[in-house]
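The aim of this short unit is practical: by the end, you should be able to scan a pair of folded records and say something sensible about each. We start with the first protein, listed as its amino acid sequence and then its structure tokens.
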Amino acid sequence: MHLVGKVICLQGLSGFDLLYSTGWNTSDQAVGPSKASNQQPIHTNLTMYPTQLNNGWNAEDVASLIENGHLEKYSTCRWILPNYMPCNETVKGRDFSNHLRDRHGVTGAPSSQHRCRWEGCLERDFNRDCLIRHLREQHLMWRWPCPTCDQDFTRKNTMFEHRDRSCPRRFV
């Protein structure tokens, strides 16, 4: 359902849109529906307006949408600098690895060891790739909700494993 001007469009059968007048009064002072709202359908073909929702999304599509949200979200970096003050730079999720490399010296081979210097973190040393995953899971709070029971997981693959094997609603 979409509101197009003052008309609601519902996807009808065989590609036609089913239109309903919303009954909005068009006078300058009016701000709500008129009392003489007529809900009679008008059949027409308005292919220029997208009127059908995508009901064919699967869990992988939802996970991709969530991941894109994580990548586009801005977070404040709380990495402790050599002067014992937090970095406080605002960084987009997709740029956090580059930020760690360029600003905080998290470089080297994927197996190179680095300590998490996030404010308040007492964790041990990590491989570079594990450190980035640790930051996303523990400090940036990236979460992956199960599409059927809404239980949260820190890793996407763990959410899929839960959904496929142990989700209490997987057969519902």
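Turning to the second protein, read its sequence before its tokens, just as you did above.
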Amino acid sequence: MLNSRKHDQLANAEKSLTAVLDSQNPSRHLLASRALVRARLGLWDEAIGDANESIEIQPSVLAYIAKSMAHVGKGERYKGYRACDIAFEHSHSTHVTFLLLIKAVVVFMAGEHDDAISRVEDLIATLYSNSICYVVQAYMHFLLGNALMESGDYEGAIQSFNDAGEKPRHHSNQALSLVSLISGWKFDDLDIMIRLHHCEALYAAGRMSAAESFLNIINSTDEEVFMRESITVLICTLLHRYLTTPESSGNESSQEPETTTSSVYQRN
């Protein structure tokens, strides 16, 4: 899901692209760009239409990726996979690794989480420089942990957040920015978000280690990071719980917290 600010940014971009396209002959580049924006907005049919029109003018990697994302969003995962596969035919040989990573992202977004994570694992095993793959795989585990939290599988969530935290991550990468642009996934502050969500999973599962984990985060996090809204909201939510919940007896794994912080699980 999109937060309101990101939705407004994408909606404004869609309006601007539409205004330009309405004032001139169709441009394959602009159509492909609008297709991607519309896919991010959840306008699946409109995105597919733009992508097809762009491809009719001249096939491109961006148009096929946008078409792939739209089909997956619409629930037509195999059509999405085929569109992503065709993108390979129009790419430079040096872009194959990146497209394989994008294909894994598409598979994950289609709900085939284990397959997607396995695909990235295969890329990591075969590449010399794979920092971007580690980051994307960590984010997949992070999203999976969030989904398990919302379904009430706190032990499964703990394991997913543990898996996410084990991956080495370096966030400053142009290719990673492209992954974010295409998928909408936000990699900013991923490290602390993993730790905080892991801490919440520990709390939800009734683990005594939750409070200690939370204090470790507080003591090791820079003040600048604390001032970021998404971090502040989650920290304040967790702190309120610890201050208002009776001391754990260590046998609360079957209890669910009164509220959840599902809003911070959204894919911005």
